[in-house]
Amino acid sequence: MILLTGATGFIGAHILRALSEKNLRVRCLVRKPASSEKPNISYVTGDVLDYDSLVKATEGVETVYYFIHMMGNQPRGEQKRFDTLDRLAINNMVRACQINGVKRIIHLTGIRAPQEKLSHHLESRKEVEEIIKNSGIGYTIFRASVIIGRGGAAFDILDTAVRKLPIIPVFNWENTKIQPIYIGDVVRYLVECLDKKDTVNKCYDIGCSQVFTYKELMQQYAKELGLKKSFISIPGSWNWLSAMVLGKIAPVNPNVVYWLIESLHNNMVCEPNDLEVIFRFEPLSFEESIRKIAESK
User: Fold this and answer.
1) Which of 78, 89, 177, 297 could form an S-S bond across to 48 if both were Cys, CB 3.0 to 4.6 Å?
2) What is the pTM of this model?
């Protein structure tokens, strides 16, 4: 039995579809009662902030997919509390998994450069990862930067900025380096690792073969869309102003917009690994990813 958290979110919904197609038994953790017509898919009501509900949810479970992030869940004035909630949530899950003998946690987080001072968002991601790794439970952890797919917060912000802003301002993060990856490739790694025992107790950075600066990424995206855009460099970060503007025009929670913008100064480039040997595929290029998205409309 697999327990899937975040089943209604961007990543979770893709994973649920892929696991369902493989006819695997999946139990989805949801906060409101739900049901499924598919015999291999079930739902359990619970909340990662409620330990007792997680003990019930993890009964008979062998593998947990953990896709919980609390950035958008705070009331006004308490936005910085998401790290406290992230910490409580993962500790609750780990304790429940230990009680019920769960064998493995599969997790997706963000790439980070070890030598850099991390943003609030990435520091919390690092803490969650460390709690999983130190839990005594088997794990497989994938780290990504910008995931190219509609419904993903980072991609939706990129898409909004390039499509809707007549002149695109770039701030002191314009030369930050990132290595994007197509959502289909992320899902493939997360699902196929189930049957690859050599990925247990391992962490992997995932991305396409191309490394861009954020400015180059926006320029290339505009080119793929056939849009001619002007870019203007402005000194400073202007995080709150950027978040306020994009939060009004992008289909993304304004709190999430701010914390993602704050993370733009952190480089997110893959460390070398043996993924191609293990999984026997190479992720799509950025250009191919954009064309895939266009074809799926």
Assistant:
1) 89
2) 0.93
